[in-house]
User: Which sequence fits this backbone?
């Protein structure tokens, strides 16, 4: 009997191999008609064994959803397969759980040990080239209901809190990235001699990078997994953040910050989707809102590090005049630490089980859910509780495979895989605009755009207005000298905030001094000597220099506007821009302190939104916070002082954060798992585009008028709050 059983098994394996080959060859000629050919061939192959199937012993059994193999038959003469896996081959994706007592998926493959019905199911598998969208939708609905029940059994405990802090580091890295360029720009513009257009580009480049990153990594996370996509994106962010702290040229620094932004752009869409798939419905809104606090922590971390590092000019070194490593570069390096820490911590965490189940990987999903259950039960003092789930619904997969022959070159295989992946991503993005999701997608696009346009526009406009107020106050103290004549005088002290008109300087010496905000206009310098000069915001306009000598100065050509240089000489000019914080020490501290207060001010809004999100609902939180933020915009008209603008900045940030938290939660809950990060990434990319537009438009009105930015911000928030009420409420619903 044993010999007959082995012969029978060998014949079945051979028949299946032949059936596959028939299918592959026929599919190239007759397309979908291969189903009938394969089905007929499979039935003929198995029919001879159906009548006497009970005469042969089986080595495995199915009971209660579990599928276990005989441990004594774990290794056979053929190379290590248990008897219960006889009839499988490598292309059948051997069920791993049979060695571990893991429950088999409802939609899993049949086996010989299951009897004739299972044999027919196995044969039918070869004849099906795909499943309809309706079948997938039904499977997804059943999975959503069962998954919520499983999460209830797993409970909320140590595992979720561990994942909370791990993903919080990734979100913290995103918050840091937003502030890095803004904090280093005042120093970098001097270190790299940046013009005004270059400064603007450096300020916006991180948003362009994050826009690309959100779109790219969000789409990939639905195809290759949340954890893997997040690890790759954070790695790119860490690598190019590290490089950007050492590169010297403006172009290479800009390129590194762009790619750093591309990397961190995937953080927000993946983090919220990833964490939501470990939370039950009664915990989801609250704990996703608590997670938002790490973005605030990232801002506080960046402000504190900038405060502690950048003003200390002594924290630097240089190798000649070609390579300089100033303190702001140390700050850029330190800001990469949260991303590196997130990578290290995330490496110890599992993939989302929901992602596995949506992609037909029953065993992997079941094992992770069991890990969640056991971790929480042990932490609560109930290690004896057993994970009672035996079978989890998995979603049937569409036939998206491409036949790649073994003789195909490797580079072409990778090319075909990339093309296939790109097509899948494209289809997933277009699916967000299907009739079922089109209305909510357009509504969310409008809400994301209006909120981002107003929020980022105002948060950048506030510091610019504070700088403008400071400049006005500084300009009010400017001293003006007209038609002065100075002869045989040595200047060896700092010259600051002065305007000299129609002056005449004869045989004067300017030695070892600093010129800050100095203007010389329509003046004559005759036989003057300039040595070791450092200048900031200094310019000579319509001046004449006769027989003058410039030695070791940074008075470059662009500082001389319509000037005449007669018999004058420049020797050993300083290279690059000289960086000196001694004059800007108080201003630097003020910038970091203002941003620190603005970031800290969102703490009350975070707490309120977390406590009320599951009580009053997402829509009320979103619309209510947007309306209050809209009203608060009109108080900006009264911000005529530095302290008044700081207070208004804190007020606006504290109110608007609740609407951001609600928008993050509702975006996660409005899309099914196989489209969640794709949709979130697309909307977050649109958010960054709106941020670029808002910043560019609002900055153009600094010093001109307050009315236009206020009207733009209030109008956008009002429109966003109105559209938010048209979205469906997701409180109390299972995660799709």
Assistant:
């Amino acid at each position: 009997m044993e010999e007959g059983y082995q012969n029978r098994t060998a014949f079945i394996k051979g028949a299946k191999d032949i059936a596959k080959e028939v299918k592959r060859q026929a599919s190239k000629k007759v397309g979908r008609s291969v189903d009938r050919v394969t089905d007929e061939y499979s039935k003929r192959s198995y029919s001879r064994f159906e009548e006497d199937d009970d005469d042969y012993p089986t080595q495995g059994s199915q009971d209660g959803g579990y599928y276990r193999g005989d441990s004594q038959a774990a290794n056979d003469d053929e190379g290590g397969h248990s008897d219960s896996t006889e009839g499988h081959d490598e292309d059948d994706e051997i069920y791993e759980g049979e060695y571990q007592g893991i429950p088999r998926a409802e939609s899993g493959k049949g086996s010989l040990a299951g009897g004739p019905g299972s044999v027919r199911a196995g044969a039918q598998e070869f004849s099906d080239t795909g499943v309809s969208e309706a079948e997938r939708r039904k499977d997804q609905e059943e999975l959503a209901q069962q998954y919520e029940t499983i999460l209830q059994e797993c409970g909320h405990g140590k595992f979720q809190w561990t994942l909370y802090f791990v993903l919080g580091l990734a979100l913290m890295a995103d918050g840091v990235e937003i502030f890095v360029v803004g904090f280093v720009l005042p120093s970098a513009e001097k270190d790299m001699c940046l013009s005004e257009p270059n400064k603007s580009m450096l300020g916006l480049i991180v948003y362009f990078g994050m826009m690309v990153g959100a779109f790219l990594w969000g789409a990939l996370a639905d195809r290759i997994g949340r954890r893997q996509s997040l690890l790759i994106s954070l790695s790119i962010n860490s690598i190019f953040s590290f490089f950007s702290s050492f590169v010297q040229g403006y172009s290479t620094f800009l390129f590194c910050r762009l790619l750093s932004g591309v990397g961190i752009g995937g953080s927000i869409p993946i983090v919220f989707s990833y964490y939501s798939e470990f939370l039950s419905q009664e915990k989801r809104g609250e704990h996703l809102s608590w997670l938002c606090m790490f973005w605030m922590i990232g801002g506080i971390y960046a402000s504190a590090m900038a405060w502690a590092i950048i003003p200390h000019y002594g924290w630097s070194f240089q190798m000649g005049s070609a390579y300089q490593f100033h303190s702001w570069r140390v700050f850029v390096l330190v800001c990469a630490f949260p991303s590196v820490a997130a990578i290290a911590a995330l490496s110890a965490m599992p993939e989302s089980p929901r992602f596995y189940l949506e992609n037909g990987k029953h065993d992997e999903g079941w094992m992770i859910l069991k890990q969640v259950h056991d971790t929480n039960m042990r932490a609560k003092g109930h290690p004896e509780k057993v994970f009672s789930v035996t079978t989890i619904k998995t979603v049937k997969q569409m036939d998206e495979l491409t036949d790649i022959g073994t003789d195909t070159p490797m580079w072409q295989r990778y090319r075909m895989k990339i093309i296939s992946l790109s097509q899948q991503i494209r289809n997933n993005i277009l699916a967000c605009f299907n009739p079922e999701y089109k209305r909510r997608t357009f509504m969310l696009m409008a809400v994301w755009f209006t909120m981002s346009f107003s929020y980022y526009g105002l948060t950048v406009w506030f510091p610019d207005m504070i700088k403008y107020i400071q400049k006005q106050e500084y300009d009010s103290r400017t001293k003006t000298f007209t038609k002065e004549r100075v002869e045989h005088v040595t200047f060896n002290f700092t010259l600051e905030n002065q305007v000299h008109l129609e002056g005449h300087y004869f045989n004067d010496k300017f030695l070892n001094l600093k010129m800050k905000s100095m203007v010389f206009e329509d003046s004559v310098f005759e036989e003057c000597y300039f040595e070791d000069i450092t200048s900031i915001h200094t310019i000579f306009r319509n001046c004449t220099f006769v027989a003058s000598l410039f030695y070791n100065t940074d008075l470059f050509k662009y500082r001389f506007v319509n000037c005449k240089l007669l018999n004058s000489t420049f020797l050993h000019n300083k290279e690059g821009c000289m960086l000196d914080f001694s004059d800007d020490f108080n201003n630097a501290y003020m910038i970091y302190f203002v941003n620190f207060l603005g970031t800290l001010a969102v703490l009350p809004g975070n707490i309120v939104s977390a406590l009320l999100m599951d009580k009053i609902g997402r829509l009320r939180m979103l619309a209510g916070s947007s309306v209050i933020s809209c009203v608060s915009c009109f108080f900006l008209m009264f911000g005529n002082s530095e302290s008044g603008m700081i207070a208004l900045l804190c007020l606006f940030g504290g109110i608007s954060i609740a609407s951001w938290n609600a928008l993050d939660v509702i975006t996660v809950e409005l899309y099914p798992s196989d489209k969640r990060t794709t949709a979130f990434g697309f909307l977050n990319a649109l958010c960054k585009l709106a941020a670029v537009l808002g910043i560019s438009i609002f900055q153009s009105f600094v010093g001109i008028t307050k009315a236009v930015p206020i009207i733009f911000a209030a109008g956008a928030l009002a429109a966003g709050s109105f559209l938010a009420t048209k979205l469906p409420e997701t409180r109390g619903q299972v995660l799709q």
Observations:
- The two ends are 51 Å apart (CA to CA).
- The longest strand covers residues 509-521.
- The mean pLDDT is 76.
